[in-house]
Amino acid sequence: MKRRLASAVRGFVSFAWNDRLSGVAALVLVSLLLLSLIGPYLPLGDPEGIGAGPRLAPPSLEFPLGTDELGRSYLPRLIRGISATFLLATTAVMVTAIIGGVTGMLSAYKGGFFDGLVVRIADIFFAFPIVLTGLLVTAIVGPGTLSVLAVIASATLPMFIRLVRSVTLGIAARGFVTAAEVAGASTTRVLIVHLLPNIMGATVIQLTYAISIGMLIEGVLSFLGIGVQPPHASLGSLLRQGVLYLTVAPWMVFSSGFLLTLAILSINLLGDGLRDAIDPLRDRALR
């Protein structure tokens, strides 16, 4: 186990060194993750401390990112917003990756009626716009984190189903899978031993893109007021709050918008680098 972990770390360091842009993106992403984890324990002030300073005060030594309309220090609220956005997007995407991966593999391997049913359900999910889905979910369960999780899941689940199904269809026709079936291997063994290791690369790449999509969905829903609700904070809700005071406190919009853009861009660049590392001939064939 230790050898595998050490090998994985060396492989990631080598990948980051060879692909400098992806390495910078990974460094930025890790920094944001660490900040979201240790931020609440840093002596930056209480994010809910109403009246900690003057209302809408500009950035200063005491308040590095200024204060909001209630006199709360904006820096600890921004750190809490990063944590909430990462947590919501990652939680929803990890769940849909597992469900979508298993469903996609079974659909491609079994085929028949079950495959057709899964494909039609995925098409139905794709047919609904994200904002419309958010409004529908909000009308049923109300605004809040549960609505955000449900909308992210509904948007990313068909992505994993389609991707895993497509990759599995190509692998299931290979000779080693046929040999395993002839040898009497069970469906579970074929899926876990022969198919799963061969789709992990594509799934990990899709996972990075799905997390960036989840963060964008959280930002949109919270900006519209149907996502994370006060007094809790996310990057989307902070951006919505800052727009109300754009002319008198522009730092509120710029800081939250910049961090959301930086996080999404870093994840996408890291995903591009992973794609090129896993399938290096993909782009070379076009040259």
Automatic annotation (TrEMBL):
InterPro entries: BP-dependent_transpt_permease (IPR050366), MetI-like (IPR000515), MetI-like_sf (IPR035906). The keyword Lipid metabolism does not apply. Residues 82-271 form the ABC transmembrane type-1 domain. GO terms for biological process: peptide transport; protein transport; transmembrane transport. It is a multi-pass membrane protein. PROSITE patterns: ABC_TM1. The chain crosses the membrane at residues 21-42, 82-109, 121-140, 146-164, 207-228, 248-270. This is Peptide/nickel transport system permease protein. The lineage of its organism: Bacteria, Pseudomonadati, Pseudomonadota, Alphaproteobacteria, Hyphomicrobiales.
